[in-house]
């Protein structure tokens, strides 16, 4: 029963989450948390962050140009886009594990 | 890539590595590989560790199956770079590119086993809808997938909803067929570290 492996994968993802939210960076942890949650993002950044989360293939050069024109530096945008992406991946991971736990609660199938 | 810092903002060591890779492989270093060298203490180091663990760490899923999951998740997200990169890697791992293309064309009729098919369907729904139900999971378990395998597949899903979304958002440049094949060979030999 490779429980340790499951812990390793989950732990490695949690390390990624903690790093992008809390590592020293040009944006504040509060800014990064908002991008991570896709909630409370400043209006000039919302179109870019929301596309990253909901329809990443639709992100365009214009989305970045607009964000830069509103005063964000490239490093700030790098950090906030990474946080938005990792936030969405974390929500998917959590939702999958929660559904698995509910399925297991209802009957031991594996 | 859409941010100039990701095209030109690397340290001297990384730039030298990119040049060496280009000379010896005959292909440019893929943007997905370059990205993790930009401020690695913020994203790259931990991202590589997680992706390697998900894709190459111990699992009842084979490397070929995990690469196929990566390609399938990328297809659902319409992530052009990762579809090509991981179709090539899965195709080489299976030594059967047609099987991979069949899965991407229609998972319901593709020539794969039911445990993998049920898992791909679940990963597709999770990626598309950002949620799955207990009933969805029960269908996967009923197909013969262990709970540990589900957890492992969810790690692959998290990894490729990270890399693929970044590829789309940041504008990873597509490679030639030969370039993707060379990248696939590298990923099968060295993994993601």
What keywords describe this structure?
heterodimer; A: mainly alpha; 5 helices; B: 193 residues; mainly alpha; globular
The DSSP helix count of chain A reads: 5
The gyration radius over C-alpha positions of chain A equals 17 Å
Low-confidence runs of chain B: none
| Overall 3D shape of chain A | globular
Number of domains of chain A: 1
The share of residues in helices of chain B is over 70%
* First-to-last CA distance of chain A: 11 Å
Overall pLDDT metric of chain B: 96
Sequence of secondary-structure elements of chain B: HHHHHHHHHHH
| Biggest interface, CB < 8 A | A-B, 54 and 62 residues
According to CATH, the homologous superfamily of chain B is AhpD-like
The name of the CATH architecture of chain B is Up-down Bundle
Largest sheet of chain B: none
Q: Helical region count of chain B?
A: 11
What is shown here, in short?
Chain A has 110 residues and is mainly α. Chain A has one domain. In chain A, 73% of the residues lie in helices and 0% in strands.
Notes on the protein architecture:
- The complex is a heterodimer of chains A (110) and B (193).
- With 110 residues, chain A is mostly helical.
- Chain A has helices spanning 3-22, 29-37, 46-54, 61-69, 74-106.
- The N and C termini of chain A lie close together (11 Å).
- The model of chain A has no long low-confidence stretch (mean pLDDT 92).
- By secondary structure, chain B is mainly alpha-helical.
- Chain B is built from eleven helices and no strands.
- Chain B has helices at residues 4-8, 12-25, 31-35, 44-56, 63-77, 80-94, 97-105, 114-129, 134-142, 147-170, 177-190.
- The longest helix of chain B is centred in the C-terminal third of the chain and has 24 residues, at 147-170.
- Classes of the chains: A mainly alpha (110), B mainly alpha (193).
- At the A-B interface, helix 1, helix 3 and helix 5 of A face helix 1, helix 4, helix 8, helix 9 and helix 10 of B.
């Amino acid at each position: 029963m490779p429980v340790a492996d499951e812990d390793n994968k989950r732990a490695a993802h949690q390390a990624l989450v903690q790093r992008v939210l809390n590592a020293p960076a040009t944006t504040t942890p509060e800014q990064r948390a908002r991008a991570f949650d896709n909630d409370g993002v400043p209006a000039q950044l919302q179109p870019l962050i929301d596309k990253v989360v909901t329809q990443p293939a639709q992100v365009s050069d214009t989305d970045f140009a607009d964000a830069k024109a509103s005063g964000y530096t490239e490093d700030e945008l790098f950090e906030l886009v990474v946080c938005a992406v990792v936030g969405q991946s974390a929500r998917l991971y959590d939702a999958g594990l929660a559904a698995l736990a509910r399925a297991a609660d209802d009957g031991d199938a594996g | 890539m859409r941010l100039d810092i990701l095209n030109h903002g690397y340290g001297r060591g990384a730039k030298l590595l990119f040049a060496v890779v280009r000379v010896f492989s005959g292909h440019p270093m893929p943007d997905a590989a370059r990205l993790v060298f930009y401020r690695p203490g913020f994203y790259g180091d931990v991202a590589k560790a997680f992706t390697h663990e998900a894709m190459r760490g111990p699992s009842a899923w084979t490397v070929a199956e995990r690469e196929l999951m990566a390609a399938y998740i990328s297809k659902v997200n319409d992530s052009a770079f990762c579809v090509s990169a991981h179709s090539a890697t899965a195709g080489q791992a299976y030594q059967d590119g047609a099987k991979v293309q069949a899965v991407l064309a229609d998972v319901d009729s593709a020539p794969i086993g039911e445990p993998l098919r049920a898992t791909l369907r679940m990963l597709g729904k999770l990626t598309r809808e950002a949620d799955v139900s207990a009933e969805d999971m029960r269908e996967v378990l009923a197909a013969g997938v262990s709970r540990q395998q589900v957890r492992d597949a969810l790690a692959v899903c998290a990894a490729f909803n990270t890399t693929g979304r970044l590829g789309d958002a940041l504008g990873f440049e597509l490679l030639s067929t030969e370039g993707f094949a060379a990248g696939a060979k590298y990923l099968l030999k060295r993994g993601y570290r």
